[in-house]
Specification:
Elements: H1 19-33, H2 38-47, H3 49-58, H4 62-69, H5 72-103, H6 108-120, H7 122-134, H8 140-146, H9 151-166, H10 169-194, H11 198-201, H12 209-215, H13 226-244, H14 248-267
Helix pairs in contact: 3-14, 5-6, 5-7, 5-9, 6-13, 7-12, 9-14, 10-12, 10-13, 10-14
């Protein structure tokens, strides 16, 4: 069948566009599908002044200063309080993961990643329980029953859960990757500050395994599959970008909210 492509000039109106108008329209359409590699996004984050400023504050936060310069009693009490609050953050993160699994049920690749991410955190829970007990903070179950988490930790927990449950999977996995790298740096500094005081604190490095497991993330002794996490994040990023593209400004806003809430928690 031959399709008549002629224009009936008596009934139809032909609109002519200038070259610049055509190019502008092409750019708008291209912008909707244009994307960046995950490596490019991470590089841009390193150059992003606002993100870099938050990261700098995270690496010189009040908690780290106290653990470096505080008294033995202050250090031990601060560590205990952080661990108690982390029990609630851990619980909120699991809720966020469960919601994410339901809301993104059609995205099989992301569902698989979230499931593996949830399962990988079981060791973290064991280390948290061990460190909490060594600090005299009781068990996680007792903490959930008796402890009132700080408002700042609740804000961080809620933000973390919100990101996992509702955000574009590409935003989430890059945010988790950056958050993990910052946690590695914070925990490495924390363990270095505490090491000279272990005897006075009546603790061992094993007692502080909740923090030490992240300080070891780049070593052969690391306690979880960080390389597997990175490969999974890369796969999710590529899959999500093929489907929805990637808007750096939108991602940056989400990341800054997450990092600001983490900073508030450390400062509290």
């Amino acid at each position: 069948m031959v399709v008549d492509m002629s224009i009936d000039t008596e009934e139809d109106t032909v609109t002519y566009f200038s070259f610049s108008e055509v190019m502008e329209e092409i750019e708008k359409k291209a912008e909707k599908v244009r994307t960046m590699s995950m490596l490019e996004v991470l590089g841009r984050c390193e150059e992003d002044a606002e993100i870099s400023a938050i990261k700098k504050k995270l690496l010189s936060n009040r908690l780290l200063k106290l653990l470096r310069n505080g008294t033995i009693e202050e250090k031990k009490e601060s560590l205990k309080t952080v661990c108690k609050d982390c029990v609630f953050i851990w619980e909120a993160r699991n809720i966020g993961i469960e919601l994410g699994l339901k809301l993104h049920a059609e995205n099989k690749v992301y569902v698989d990643f979230l499931g593996r991410f949830r399962d990988s955190k079981k060791l973290e829970w064991e280390e948290l329980a061990n460190t909490l007990g060594a600090l005299g903070g009781g068990t996680p179950e007792e903490v959930l029953k008796d402890h009132i988490p700080s408002p700042r930790s609740q804000t961080f927990a809620a933000t973390y859960s919100w990101v996992l449950a509702t955000q574009n999977p590409a935003y989430t996995v890059v945010g988790l990757h950056i958050g993990c790298r910052i946690l590695v740096e914070v925990c490495t500094m924390l363990m270095a500050f505490l090491k000279p005081d272990l005897e006075a604190l009546d603790l061992t490095e094993e007692d502080l395994g909740f923090f030490g497991m992240y300080a070891l993330v780049d070593s052969i002794d690391m306690h979880f599959d960080y390389a597997g996490f990175c490969r999974g994040a890369q796969r999710i990023f590529e899959e999500s970008c093929r489907k929805d593209g990637f808007n750096y400004e939108g991602f940056s806003t989400t990341l800054q909210l997450l990092l600001h809430s983490k900073l508030d928690f450390y400062e509290g």
